[in-house]
Amino acid sequence: MPDVRTIAVVVNGIPYRRDVETRTTLADFLRHELRLTGTHVGCEHGVCGACTVLVGGRSARACLMLAVQCDGEEIATVESLATEGRLNPLQQAFQDCHGLQCGFCTPGVLMTLTEFLREHPDPSEADVREALTGNLCRCTGYQGIVDAALAAAKRVREGA
Amino acid sequence: MKPAPFTYHDPRSVSEALDLLAALDNARVLAGGQSLMPMMNFRYAMPDHVIDLNRIAALSYLRCDDEALRCGAMTRQRDIELSAEVKGRVPILHEALAHVGHRQTRNRGTIGGSLCHLDPSAELVNVTALLDGTLHIASRREVRNVSIGEFAVAYMTTCLEPDEMLAAVTLPLPPRSDGYAFVEFARRRGDFAIVACSVLLGLESNGAITRPRIAISGLGHAPARAHAIERALEGEQPAASAFKAAAAVAAQLDAMEDAYVSAAYRRHLARVLTYRALEQAARRATEAAHA
Questions:
Q1: CB A123 within 8 A of CB A101
Q2: ipTM more than 0.85?
Q3: B82 and B145 fall within a common domain
Q4: Nearest to A63 by CA among B46, B188, B39
Q5: Whether pTM exceeds 0.90
Q6: Residue B103 and residue A116: Cβ atoms within 8 Å?
Q7: Based on the domain organization, do B73 and B153 belong to the same domain?
Q8: Domain enclosing residue B187, as ranges
Q9: What pLDDT digit, counting tens, does each position of B233-287 carry?
Q10: Residues of B at the A interface (Cβ-Cβ below 8 Å)?
Q11: Alpha carbons B111 and B71: distance in angstroms, whole number
Q12: Cross-chain residue pair A3–B8, CB shorter than 8 Å
């Protein structure tokens, strides 16, 4: 008999209450149960970073957490970034600087950088590259991603 | 569904967790999930019971006094990395943590989880060996304290019995004036290292090396102190010739071999990294002496 629990989570500011099988990963819960398919699932063993979300404000691999562990937590996914159809400064910088090609890794990259830029509003290029080590991108060679992160930081600092 | 079915338990106290461990068959303790979760997703690990320690607040703490740093097993790697006390008092641990996975995995990963997973090149295992750390093991039967040498019984295998769990680790503090270095080689930043090397050493008033310590990972099933190198360095002047001689000893150590990395290459890395770590630690000790 499946092991099921009822959990209450707040995702992107919206409270949800759901019954989940305890072996469901957070990534699958977000995608299949809440239909928030912005969180991508790549390697499913914590290497690629595509599923990165913020749990209690901290970046984490959604494939390496169980949904049941998030009971009572606040979660932010890539869907939280744009407001009223307008890209936020980080997303806009990705578009402007060619920070993505196929876009598969982008949600995880954006969430990693959301946490990183909050802590480091004026990062060096080396800092950005270090922050990105946990997110694999197979298209861009990272140059556009690094440019976008630096551009976004600058725009936010200048109040754009 | 990735993991095979299991029954989930989320005890709120150590005592409750130990009761579960004593009562349940084929149970696994879930710490930060950065190793066990991939293994369950792949179904390498198929426990019938998962005992999640994340709701036990009493297992997450950092306590530092004049002699030692004590870390609760569930203390997140990121919290140790960000601790000003750790950075100031155990800088070797701070430096090693920068090599542990990535920001996202350190946010979840715990010191206890890393020690229990016991990857041969895990940085936290190396630093625990370097500092002669004591692992505190709890069960319904007894509390016992072991060294890394006793804890690591074989490749990725600890001495933990099925009803036991790691509760904390105590790391004796090195003298403040000791120079330190943690260096490693991995194919990509954040990957498990192929070989890693950590060093602590002091300098006498005449400039000679004293109480040198060196721990090397990636050669055997667990990191180990290289006592032969330590003996060779004691009393030597911190010069390139002494580091070179020590590195030559590192190149003679026994090394394991797998499909990807030969023993000869591991020994080569041990030689290069030993030299680099000694040079950096000696430089820092010199700076500390002149500060």
A1: no
A2: yes
A3: yes
A4: B39
A5: yes
A6: yes
A7: yes
A8: 179-290
A9: 999 999 999 999 999 999 999 999 999 999 999 999 999 999 999 999 999 999 9
A10: 1-8, 10, 33-34, 37-38, 40-42, 50, 52, 54, 78, 101-105, 107-108, 188-190
A11: 8
A12: yes
